[in-house]
Amino acid sequence: MRTRSTTVTVGVGPLSFEDVVAVARHDVPVIISPGSLAEVRRSRQVVERLAVDSEPHYGVSTGFGALATRHIPVERRRQLQRSLIRSHAAGSGPEVEREVVRALMLLRISTLATGRTGIREETLQAYVAMLNAGLTPLVYEYGSLGCSGDLAPLAHCALALMGEGEVRDAAGTRKPTAEAYAAVGLTPVALAEKEGLALINGTDGMLGMLVLAITDLRRLLKVADIAAAMSVEGLLGTDNVFAADLHQLRPQPGQALSAANLRTLMRDSAIRLSHQREDCPRVQDAYSLRCSPQVAGGARDTVEHAATVAGYELAAAIDNPVVTHDGRVESNGNFHGAPLAYVLDFLAIVTADLASISERRTDRFLDVARNHGLKAFLAEDPGVDSGHMIAQYTQAAIVSELKRLAVPASVDSIPSSALQEDHVSMGWSAARKLRRAIDGLTRVLAIELITAARGLEQRAPLQPGPAAAAVITTLRQGGVGGPGADRWLAPEIETAVRLVSSGQVVEAAESVVGPLN
């Protein structure tokens, strides 16, 4: 198992997915490399020369957006920066999750550390200190159009850097920022020319949520294969269709990886061997069983495409204007979130489809016309007991919601800023709905797992393969009960969700079959 780093150093190459997760979820502290600090100081000198220039320069001596035609006198420029942040910190709705805000902050720090934004070294170090102190600015659900960066979310973080607004401290207590700063010995920053723009003109919220989503989906894809293998086994399906040579006929890389997982997971199953004979009347399994590698494989390939896009963005320096390596200050459109918005939407589509095929496998376990000898709804005493009937309803409700969440956000655009910003990406919205979709997929897979486990146990005295047995043991030891009379299922479903989310289900399977793809 990989050892988590004790620090994440920014400025020695692009951040990795592991770096983002370490800071966002595990509070690993951040430091800036000396080389990055030197570049930050060099580019700041460029901005300071422009600040005294008689010619107007966007973001340095002008207003912003549709107000960029106004030249701002020197004595009003610090007020300009403060006003920018205060006016842009206009989010609304529920608070955004702590891990998302921390990822957003780290990624903005990463761009600031490139030296392409013209920010001062002391401002960058103050941002790092806020992050390392565990202070999390309150960021809200609504406010970003995914173009000109995630303006409102980033502005709420910049507001905290100024000592204003509200934060949650490391213990999660909501406080005025000034009070939280005093408690940890930090000093607010008085922003100078260009710094307000540098703090808010990035795709960091979208990117942070994309990196976290890819991390979660890579784990859930393994869970999807584990659940599928247990369902195929419990429904007396065949693993012949997962043979390597059959999948070589269609050389989709994710499909081959998923099929290999299924072969590994179904190895040495007594249940499988019990019906692997010539007089077995089964010719072909239903699509939800037989085509599992094709669906999960396509999802895998989509996730890896999204990871490629995220990798490009992790290597980017997003700001407008930017200070180039040769000292020019140039306007650009790199803050447009389209590349991220597209893959965030694409991931919501495959998330919905993974959940859809999982729900169909669960439903087969409950129907006596299709479950090959199991009790109706896997109930102990059908009629008196309802078994997993309503657990499948819960799955169905979630799958229906996931289909709605799969409607792309990136096809929409609403003009803003007096038509200066007349085409936007809606990437933040795509990321927000993807987070809800991933939560839904986790719950759907958890219900399939507990249903498949119950079905496999009803095949006794036949025993499942080692992988399925290990997962069932983990479920039972975690508090998910086995077959029996009806009981309150909601807590057991939540336990299974926790075991999926924590990685314990994957660890259980891999403990007996080795690493899965």
Automatic annotation (TrEMBL):
Annotated keywords: Histidine metabolism, Lyase
Top-level taxon: Bacteria
Pfam families: Lyase_aromatic (PF00221)
Catalyzed reactions per annotation: L-histidine = trans-urocanate + NH4(+)
Pathway annotation from the record: Amino-acid degradation; L-histidine degradation into L-glutamate; N-formimidoyl-L-glutamate from L-histidine: step 1/3
Subcellular locations according to the entry: Cytoplasm
GO MF assignments: histidine ammonia-lyase activity
Main location per the UniProt record: cytoplasm
EC number: 4.3.1.3
NCBIfam families: hutH (TIGR01225), PRK09367.1 (NF006871)
Family statement drawn from the similarity comment of this UniProt entry: Belongs to the PAL/histidase family.
PANTHER family, alphabetized: HISTIDINE AMMONIA-LYASE
Name of the protein: Histidine ammonia-lyase
Species, as recorded: Microlunatus panaciterrae
Taxonomic path: Bacteria, Bacillati, Actinomycetota, Actinomycetes, Propionibacteriales
